[in-house]
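Supplementary Data S3. Sequence and structure tokens for construct A.
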Amino acid sequence: MAKEAAASNKEPQLNGIEGFKKALALLNNSLSEELRSLLETKHLYQRVTVPYEDLTSQTRDRVIPGYRTEFNQYLQRLKAPVFVTTKELFLAERDGSRQLLLQAILPNVKLFCQKCARREAFKLIWFTDVANEVKKPLSDPVMSDVAATFQMWLLVFRCQSCLGPLEGFLVRRDEWKLSLEGRSPIENFELPTFLPKTELQWFRDAVVARNSGKVLAALFYLRTFIEQFARRQTKMDGKITGGEIMTAYSTLLPETQRSSMPSLKEWYENLSAALHGAIEDADLFENARVQIERHFDFRRIYNIAEVPKDVQNSAENEERR
């Protein structure tokens, strides 16, 4: 009885073409999800991978043994271009039947909209495959040997909330690997509102550099961010060491609250040590970012006022007189 129950719970066995259609549907779903993940959660020069072997193996196990050679032959069709579309596409056969194509379906993706200042739904409004374009007659004839499993997609999206400027992504496909090779405009994202606005660009550049894999540049931008903030607060300018500036900044903080706040001077020294040694320490960046954000959050909680930029400039002008 137990064996019969187990057998009845098994998924139905498939012939070769049924198995291929099942594998194709699984791959299309995975392509859609991985491409969406790449655009929504990854950064420049990062990649995702479609689990081709796992998905086809799952299906192969359901194919009747006598049809597995046929199934493997059908899989050779998957060495073909992937279509990027907003709805499912089919190839119409002469007999009226429809054949599913290898495709990634992207009705909408959630991206940060700079105009709306929040994540919104973006719609795919235009798409081209550069690898396909270079194979056309007017192109260099040597490009005709570009593999079908290599593609370079230019995807153009528009925010559905504000209908603002277009945003473009360049995605490279090498077989089952998808990588984000470019975007226009450069990546934007939401930052804590308690960070100082005057120096915020340095912090933003630090995050962009980190997301692009340029860790040393990210460390430099992050150190620049806290040093420039400390210069503004201390009104110290000219040839003064960063250590002196950070020490002077620490003395400006209320003594009763200073001990509970992460020390910018300490993180300035940690970042400087990595920069002097040209050490691309990604963990240092992440830890420093968290603690630096905490420092400014404490400033907000304790209501510690900033020295405005115009006050600093007035003081500098007075000293020059």
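Construct B, processed identically:
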Amino acid sequence: MDVDTVFSKTTYKARFDWIDHVTPIEDDTTVTALEKTLVSVLKEGGQELKLLQMAPPEVVDWDRLQKFTYHSESRAKVRRPDVSLDHYLKTLSDTDLSELDAEFLHRRHIKGFDSEDNEIAKWSVWRCLTGEIEHEKSTYVLDDGSFYQVEKNFLAKLNSDIAQHEREGALLPPAKLGQWEADYNKEVADKDKSFLCLDAKEVPFEGARGGIELCDLLTRQKQLIHVKRYTSSATLSHLFNQARTSAELLTNGAFRGAAKKHIAERDPEGHFAVFEPETIDPREFEVVIAIVKRWDGLNLAALPFFAKMNFRRVLTDISGRLFRVSIVPVSIE
């Protein structure tokens, strides 16, 4: 096959259609203009501010990371259980707000601490910002400190595709402020016996290092619920991939047998005996992806752009195996 033939192929669109609709912004002049637009949104607030959020820009170890502090509160040694753009802006003094620009956001930091108040993480405020802005009638995405231009029609279709899988009704209760995933999952199962907590309990399976996590919560209605607290696109991608791996392996009889035994050890009365090694009808099962965050009245369109892209790809993979798939926003009290 010659080079021209390879170059003209469009098979990549089956899984990477976004490549034709997303453009990294590397031109310094455009980047500077976008930085100014974003700073204006931060200063002026309004409806556009709701499209911006703040979160750690990478996967974090929530077993160690217990609290945060903004540069604006470091002298007072204030510690917070979470980071929030709204709260951050309220901590800035009038002087800080008047000096607020891209350089300010690059030079100031947010720090993370463990339970003994040891600093274990540090990011610039700029890297912690994520979301969408409008500039000269075009839509741009900020993710991990970089800008990308996204075609509006493509973004609208992406948001529509995801919205169709938002589960109606209150399947899960709200989480408490500062509550970690393990505590939340245990509390849900303790208070409602229609849930079985399998969080951090991996199914031993040949070829898998350390085993496979079937799900965080299992219901008698054959719902496999995967729960993750939102921090970054990377964290959500880990959540989506966990759900995909579990669904893929459930088509394997040996894994189903291991999963059945794994569940029976935690459910000796057999209330959650939903798997049989011999056969499975995926259409009877629902893979539920639950995202815990401060939604503040926003919908799934508020998720980071690249996380939404990954979810749609995972959605295609899981649905292709005939499982039902839904996504559930879990609010924080």
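Confidence is low (pLDDT under 50) at residues 1-12. The CA atoms of residues 282 and 321 lie 7 Å apart.
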